[in-house]
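Extended Data, panel c. Modelled sequence:
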Amino acid sequence: MDYDYIVVGAGSAGAVVANRLSANPRNKVLLLEAGPADHPWTRIPVGSARMITNPSCNWLYSSEPDANTNGRRIPVPRGRMLGGSSALNGMAFVRGQAQDFDTWAQMGNVGWSYDSVLPFFKRMENYQGGGDDRFRGRDGPLRVTNPDPNDPFCAAVIKAAGEVGIEHNPDYNGARQDGIAMSQATIASGRRMSTARCYLDPARNRPNLRIETGALAEILLFDGMRCTGVRYSMNGERREARAAREIIVSGGSVNSPQLLELSGIGQPERLRALGIGVRQALPGVGENLRDHYAPRTRWAIDAKGFTYNDTARGLGLVRQALRYAFSGRGLLGMVGAPLRAFVRSRDGLAAPDLLLGWVPMLMEPGAKGPRIARQSGVTCYAHPMRPESKGNIHIVSADSGKPPAIHFNFLSSPVDAALTVRAIRIARAVMTAPAMAPLKVSEIAPGTDRNTDDEILDWVRAAAETTYHPVGTCKMGSDAMAVVDAELRVHGIDGLRVADASIMPTLTSGNTNAPSIMIGEKAADMVLKSAAAG
């Protein structure tokens, strides 16, 4: 069938693009999603724990073994359903710092400075939690809220942070990011606000928008150097769809470079070795991979009533379920990490470079995913926000059903190792500050026997995971390793753009879901302006 636009991937960015393009009834839009339309756990915030290992809605990728992961394969969960990773993530809403986007602009990406992207952040957001109207959106489709500020554990940590010089900041998505705060979240009325919920549900009945689920994109189709369509499979049947105007690839940082390589766009030697004809030589496809390598420090809490390990087991879990049913709050309605701090590793920095996040419980592996541990305690992850270590993602087969190889190359940059140790030391300072004394805190991991930098890094290599923020594999820019230009058009190919976290030249300072949605908004705006200009 023929369309004006085809969007490949209905995730954090792709759902936005499909909504905005189809808002004009003259635009005929096809949205392709490899996963299902929905999953019962996606509506409930705590459902993240049940979807993080579920193959029905999660690609369940894993990285290749690496020296700095002690030969471990690191889980790389990616959403595989309408809403993509916004349908199973931890729901923290973090835009990043103004400096993040100004850096992109300084790298030659005109139109991506903070002043340029702020209108798109405001356009997407419906935030009624106060703050400055210069920075916050009030009537967008994506509802953003604050968690319960009266939690006694969070109150204790905020006080402890103040004792070690980390001030409270009521709106880290406002004028400045610095400080400790309750995590703003894409949760409203106790329900997850994924892009499926906020962008696709209002558009589903548009006659000019067709949403195909269970549709795995295999290759892009071309007429010379112009991208004209997509070949995809559904229920074992191959189909083709054509677009008169543009194809927008929004598969995310794993699937977007995979689709480009399968279609002959990438490193010529790599493609030829797999029997794939070279359409366009772009050595940056799949390169520049970055993620937050985040060790989870663990702390025992001997005082009762401060963590969900005490209040959400046995009859306590029944009470939590009732609380959620009547108020939408409590464990079942909780953002992944309800408390976070943006801190500076040393004096003299222009902005924070480290992130700490607290989860008021300890988890342990379970048959259906993580479950609440019997021991009462707290998890605090701590990591650099803008790592310099870079890896890559590349296909290993011409078969679109084979997962690509993910090489993170964590801690290969010495500054990342140094900042990771510094982040852990700051977490220790907060957790042992005087305000934490009533909680009777003791360190479980890394453990009080690990004090030197080398001892801490040995533990990091053995235990750290990511915070599931892969970016950069279809980098935006004009240098030799760039894949798309500042308009997100693939270099050397007409009619083809990439719009998702893969286009980020560098990691943003914090969680990546909000910036990914912004990228979808900005991409749609650029596509529509291009069409209007003829």
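Residues 108 and 479 are 9 Å apart (CA to CA). This feature is highlighted in the accompanying rendering.
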